[in-house]
Amino acid sequence: MNQTVVLDHLTYLLKEKLSDTLIGIYLHGSMAMECFNPAQSDIDVLVITREKQPIGIYKEIARNLIRIEDEMNLKKGFELSVVLETYAANFVYPTPFEFHYSSFHREKYRTDESYFCGGWEDPDLAAHFVITYHRGIVLFGQQIKDVIKPIDKSYYIQSIKSDIEDALEGIIHNPVYYVLNLSRVLYYVRDSVISSKKEAGEWALDFVPSEYKNVIAQCLATYNNNEVEKLRFDERTLLNYATYMLNEIEELTI
């Protein structure tokens, strides 16, 4: 996959459809932090606009995102949110958004012409804003720190903790996501470091008790490898790891 070509197609689409209301298109997440894996990673994008747009515009964007994903053979595709400028300057938690698109919604847009995701609040956006502010890349428009203002640390912690609240239920079926995401949350609440999953996993190898190092090492190897392997872990070890990490995180955020 040619990342530059994909991002150029995305930028052209958003400039065409959002026109004069568009303030900026910002890349965040793994691609911005140089640890993108086409088999594992979404292409994370935050879009800031001046004004509300007709729902039909966003449905057109969704159909074109599907086309780009199909033509470019993107396995995970885009995770994209459109947020009004007012919330970038005066943050609200959880954050209202105009439009959201991800692989979770892709089939809905393929099969249901009336489907639309937007018009309510998303706690995940606090994390997206913070990562964009500190480590994002401008694809088009104004500089990030001219548009997005710093938000209260407590909102970021709430946002990233919400991503792991179901870790005990999810880690058995999705170990790579939860093992590395738990590491990322703990890394932040201990050391205030905004990291990628890869960076956090590498940090955790030096921090966690020895009985969990193999779990993290295997998840890192899979995350870094374009060929996704079926990992086989002892379920008790995974649950113990999740319990240990959740307890550490809770102690530091009480």
Automatic annotation (TrEMBL):
<dbReference type="InterPro" id="IPR024172">
    <property type="entry name" value="AadA/Aad9"/>
</dbReference>
<keyword id="KW-0547">Nucleotide-binding</keyword>
<feature type="domain" description="Adenylyltransferase AadA C-terminal">
    <location>
        <begin position="147"/>
        <end position="247"/>
    </location>
</feature>
<dbReference type="InterPro" id="IPR002934">
    <property type="entry name" value="Polymerase_NTP_transf_dom"/>
</dbReference>
<dbReference type="GO" id="GO:0070566">
    <property type="term" value="F:adenylyltransferase activity"/>
</dbReference>
<feature type="domain" description="Polymerase nucleotidyl transferase">
    <location>
        <begin position="15"/>
        <end position="91"/>
    </location>
</feature>
<dbReference type="InterPro" id="IPR025184">
    <property type="entry name" value="AadA_C"/>
</dbReference>
<dbReference type="InterPro" id="IPR043519">
    <property type="entry name" value="NT_sf"/>
</dbReference>
<keyword id="KW-0067">ATP-binding</keyword>
<keyword id="KW-0808">Transferase</keyword>
<keyword id="KW-0548">Nucleotidyltransferase</keyword>
<keyword id="KW-0046">Antibiotic resistance</keyword>
<dbReference type="GO" id="GO:0005524">
    <property type="term" value="F:ATP binding"/>
</dbReference>
<dbReference type="Pfam" id="PF13427">
    <property type="entry name" value="AadA_C"/>
</dbReference>
<dbReference type="GO" id="GO:0046677">
    <property type="term" value="P:response to antibiotic"/>
</dbReference>
<dbReference type="Pfam" id="PF01909">
    <property type="entry name" value="NTP_transf_2"/>
</dbReference>
<protein>
    <recommendedName>
        <fullName>Spectinomycin 9-adenylyltransferase</fullName>
    </recommendedName>
</protein>
